[in-house]
Task: structure prediction
Amino acid sequence: GAGVSQSPRYKVAKRGQDVALRCDPISGHVSLFWYQQALGQGPEFLTYFQNEAQLDKSGLPSDRFFAERPEGSVSTLKIQRTQQEDSAVYLCATPLSGTATGELFFGEGSRLTVL
Amino acid sequence: AQKVTQAQTEISVVEKEDVTLDCVYETRDTTYYLFWYKQPPSGELVFLIRRNSFDEQNEISGRYSWNFQKSTSSFNFTITASQVVDSAVYFCALSVEYNNNDMRFGAGTRLTVKP
Result:
């Protein structure tokens, strides 16, 4: 596609529910990042893929967070047993250069609210 | 470890005023990259500029200018003759060559330009 597309744009979940957030990256961009942006804060790194390989997941806050990109294109971020502290905007980004040393193209994000 | 500090949480100006957004960074790496991103109300972060650590030349792009000073570890952003459409949250970010999956963002500065 022309840009990074994320869905759903808004998700309200009851505490304890599982959620899945989707990222459809720019066609041809092999790398993909997930960021978490809490209210009033800057984005924080969660995980990084190169094609289907998850090369870095050091930013995932707990084992309830899981990301996949099985065919090296669309990626899904799954949060199990959601907690209130998971409420944030989840951003997906793809770099033109393949790494975070160059421009990142961001999606509009998925805003998750956990009640 | 890398760190970006944006000390100004919110700035409010009247249209046509000039405004400078401050960014101070910390890194022990000699090769690094600095960025500014704009986040309008729609939520999508938009790339504005990238500078590498070896290029301290200041840059001007229309009403935007950037002042990179390694001596003070600062990368400040000035908007000249601000307009209402400049209202957004602006983020400064840093990535380093040796760990090029990790882009660190500041907490952002919310700029409001009043007519």
